[in-house]
Automatic annotation (TrEMBL):
Keywords: Coiled coil, Cytoplasm, DNA-binding, Transcription, Transcription regulation. SMART domains: HTH_MERR. CDD domains: HTH_CueR. It comes from Rhizobium miluonense. This is Cu(I)-responsive transcriptional regulator.
Length: 149
């Protein structure tokens, strides 16, 4: 099947399929005599696996690890479980960070009258580097540090 058909069957856009091939996440598709990509049912199955993993928030690097484990019939399920548990911990950390942001913004919003005057506690809170409740805006955390695994 061509890339459009594979995209429709897998739920992964043609653009992302090309990206996954380019980055080596999936092997390059076979080609027809006219040079078009030709995908098999196995390719579509792998693309569905990737789509589901992306839907669960796994990074491309983590999906690469998962695909390696998926393909390795000698793997131990403990490896897969460890990877999934690490992802859950990262999601929980992100949830906490988002909750902290909501709290800080709520405090700032509640301190603002929202009237015709120029005084704005929200802007003051954003420009402040003081560590009080109304101004405590935590820096965003970076990407997952894969070296910790």
């Amino acid at each position: 099947m061509n890339i459009g058909e594979a995209a429709k069957a897998s739920g992964v856009s043609a653009k992302m399929i090309r990206y996954y091939e380019q980055t080596g996440l999936i092997p390059a598709a076979g080609r027809t005599n006219s040079g078009y990509r030709d995908y098999s049912g196995t390719d579509v199955h792998m693309l569905r696996f990737i789509r589901r993993a992306r839907d669960l928030g796994f990074s491309v690097a983590e999906i690469s690890d998962l695909l390696g484990l998926w393909r390795d019939e000698t793997r131990q399920s403990a490896e897969v479980k460890r990877l999934a548990q690490g992802h859950v911990h990262e999601l929980e950390r992100k949830i906490k960070d988002l909750q902290d942001m909501v709290h800080t913004l709520t405090v700032l919003i509640n301190s603002c009258r929202g009237d015709h005057r120029p005084h704005c506690p929200i802007l003051e809170g954003l420009e402040s580097d003081q560590d009080n409740e109304a101004a405590s805006i935590q820096p965003r955390a970076g990407a997952v540090d894969r070296s910790l695994r």
